[in-house]
Amino acid sequence: MGAPGGRLRGSLALLTDLYQFTMAYGYWRAGRHREPAEFELFFRRCPFQGGFALGAGLSECLAFLRTFRFSQADIEYLESVLPITTEKAFFDYLRTVDASEVSVSSAPEGSVVFSRVPIFQVKGPLLVVQLLETTLLCLVNYASLVATNAARFRLIAGPDKKLMEMGLRRAQGPDGGLSASKYSYVGGFDFTSNVLAGKLYGIPVRGTVAHSYVSSFTSLDEVNPRVLRPVSGEEPVDFPSRVEAWLSKVCRLLQVPAERVHCGERAAFVSYAVTFPHNFQGLVDTYCVMRSGIPNFCAVALALNELGYRAIGVRLDSGDLARQSVEIRQVFRTCSAHFHVPWFESIPIAVSNDVSEWNLEELAQEGNEIDMIGVGTHLVTCPLQPSLGCVYKLVKVNGCPRLKVTEDEEKTTIPGSKVVYRLWDAAGFPYMDLMALEEEPPPRAGKEVEFWLLGRNKEAGKAVPASVEILHRLYLKDGQICQALPSLTEIKKHAQTSLSKLSPAHKRLQDPEAYQVAMTQKLHALLTDLQRDSP
Amino acid sequence: MGAPGGRLRGSLALLTDLYQFTMAYGYWRAGRHREPAEFELFFRRCPFQGGFALGAGLSECLAFLRTFRFSQADIEYLESVLPITTEKAFFDYLRTVDASEVSVSSAPEGSVVFSRVPIFQVKGPLLVVQLLETTLLCLVNYASLVATNAARFRLIAGPDKKLMEMGLRRAQGPDGGLSASKYSYVGGFDFTSNVLAGKLYGIPVRGTVAHSYVSSFTSLDEVNPRVLRPVSGEEPVDFPSRVEAWLSKVCRLLQVPAERVHCGERAAFVSYAVTFPHNFQGLVDTYCVMRSGIPNFCAVALALNELGYRAIGVRLDSGDLARQSVEIRQVFRTCSAHFHVPWFESIPIAVSNDVSEWNLEELAQEGNEIDMIGVGTHLVTCPLQPSLGCVYKLVKVNGCPRLKVTEDEEKTTIPGSKVVYRLWDAAGFPYMDLMALEEEPPPRAGKEVEFWLLGRNKEAGKAVPASVEILHRLYLKDGQICQALPSLTEIKKHAQTSLSKLSPAHKRLQDPEAYQVAMTQKLHALLTDLQRDSP
Fold this sequence. Notes:
Number of domains of chain A: 2
Family (chains A, B): Belongs to the NAPRTase family.
CATH topology of the largest domain in chain A: nicotinate phosphoribosyltransferase
Protein name (chains A, B): Nicotinate phosphoribosyltransferase
Number of strands of chain A: 23
CATH architecture of the largest domain in chain A: Alpha-Beta Barrel
Shape of chain A: elongated
Helix content of chain A: 25-40%
InterPro entries (chains A, B): Aldolase_TIM (IPR013785), NAPRTase_C (IPR041619), NAPRTase_N (IPR040727), Nic_PRibTrfase-Fam (IPR007229), Nic_PRibTrfase_pncB (IPR006405), Nicotinate_pribotase-like_C (IPR036068)
Low-confidence stretches of chain A: 1-7
Strand order of the largest sheet of chain A: 15-14-1-5-3-21-22
EC number (chains A, B): 6.3.4.21
Keywords (chains A, B): Glycosyltransferase, Ligase, Phosphoprotein, Pyridine nucleotide biosynthesis, Transferase
Distance between the termini of chain A: 48 Å
Strand content of chain A: 15-25%
Largest sheet of chain A: 7 strands, antiparallel
Oligomer: homodimer
Number of helices of chain A: 19
């Protein structure tokens, strides 16, 4: 699985903010560049005012770290932009820098994660791990955001409807589009329209025709070739004339004036059917859905049926999708019964048209006959919250825990090298992420553990977990991958499993119950001590 | 100037929706693939409820077109995903496809453009120009959106404040971040924090330090080296002790208790100053701005001053930015007067902290002492409207004008090969984009011309333009670039010129006056005829 990074020519080592280099020089000149340091990557609030996020982007971060190194051209560019007083020896040092002393622990990619709990823990020489900040954030933020957004669409749509990502033209350029396709799949989408994403990541691709195809035809004379051989292998028949015959029957049945049914649209359908007889799907809203698109579709599909082929669906791209899907299903049932074609009543109906989380919920409530939903803009741009605010904070340097104190409690970091335990209740749901210092003994199943909830520093609570899981695994040890990396399909599966185990109260899209994130007594004491010592 | 496409390994030819290929096969099998066709790329509404957009992305589209071609691996992938009945000869044909018969006219990159007026006109064989749709949209939509967003920030900030883009970590992955940096620059930003964007596009880069740098220090003992040589070249001095001496004076002057001024923060500033004596800038809000950050900064800056160096600024990243900037400026003035250091009162103040269009307007109204503003999330993700809805519509095929008729007037396309004339008034403002059929004589300066405003089809109007400009230029003729392409700096300059000529009424960010977009009588008649002929 290639990282977008991997697809960019050369290394991504310069894809970072300039201040990382000025700081690096500061550390280097002070002789602090090799001090052991630890950063944590986390977000402060779950996106979309929801109760969870899916952590994503790990594989791409690891791919980036494995090739992290400055080229000669990179160094020359840096020499041109850093202050002229910058010592040459610093650039010589940068030439030797790589991630061979960097270690990364992470929740498995696709895991459900919560606010203020580290997704990644990154250890290594201060200079190197500081330089990684922006690139890691860039690789994790959007990946996790769009995976979470996709998961929300999946939660609303339910497990049975097919979901297709089709946002390429609305994404932030080529790579934004590829990331959107990849992480929407992780979050629970079935298909993408993006062919390159299909090729690079093995995501199933789908697609039919656009309105431009339909409107490019004006009459049946333009259809060529006109003949179609029945599935049985008999002599080819003149397909347009069969369709015309079926159209009369359909129009009579549906009481639609045949002369108002658009013949350019019919020509487009006939042409497409002759081209893809096993895969005929009609885009039915170029003109009028019920008086042109659907009669044309039925005529073509019934003519195909006569030759032994089954149409695979219709697509609707405008108007009231739920209402129209119900009306279309009714027509399919009428045709099915009248013409004795049983499969006709269950022809899949696909819809698109600026589907948002909000109108997907409306659709779900109204009752509809929709089988597949295409989502573009509202999936890939995440308009409810177009960025995930992951941050990357120093928690330890040279053996000493560090924190950032601010007046805003939420922005205060939790100091020190930590282990995160996910506590599970007897019903089989995770209910608390408990951060502990590395040196503490782990909480044990069935044993009481004291905790201090984040943001409620006044009082301790007590919990007895039914089982205890360590959230992070070590993926990179001294620059070497030390854990088998899952395929994209496995990541997707893990995300769905992880979500399925989360209590519905935390999965509610509006006003979810907040998942508990807490510290042990020892960690709480360390935080309090450090806060007291700072001005 | 490399296209993001150019930075992706291999061609972007597959970066498109699958239905483009099913349609391509449909056209090919019907023998229509070489029919001459024309598409137009435009948006239906100006973004952000504004009155204009900047058209951007042309250079990248041209770079994409020049390399447009399917590799053997691309073809093999397509064979694996198209229906099994797809003829082998079609894939052989795809192997020969490129943009050598494609022509593109466009408004110069960076031009002010308006709704429903084509940004691009794309002509060529039907199959090829259809295949280009998604990629062109992907390259234009975000580029134009973020350039327009940047232009709005520039309009609010006014011409004097420096604007810096710093959104890399919030963009849609690496390439989203690079596009954001590039097109924010086009839209009127001065700097970027993104080093790779600096290297690839020549955009000036800026940056100082992060909070993690400041909080990584605990005491002045950690400062190393401690000595700094005066600008004059005299003997190096022990810098930390100079700073301590200045701190006492500053604290007395500002009536701040010296023991509460954070010594870790001071160590970080001292270390940075020794490292970059000509470029010292203080990030003053890691602890308390007025009781720690500013006293520390002043002590270090005054100690530097003694050695002949001038600090270059402070940066604030939290709290009430306008109010704090005023308080900080007051301190600088006090120090300037008291210590007789004239330049001290005008030390630049830079701010960041989730700056949005809305709070930039607030800042602008409140009165402030800010010199430079860093914008990240709200610039690159365009939360007010995170996607530009450009579409790509067939307007002519095989010599016949085409339109898409819908019940929604705004979604009806304007048929036929057109020339767009921009009409200017006597005051030197453009006031109407007039679309005409190619074969019509152009409107002439000083001569009356009849027009029909889009969306008001009931009545014609008359105008007498003071001057007339043809909006589009031919950039690609039969696959060859036929117009010198401007550099990024020239595009930026054109954008600023184009915007400066637009009437303030259309530039208002809220409730702008709508710019007039109209058709000639002949084009209006064609549209009416075609609408009448469709069901």
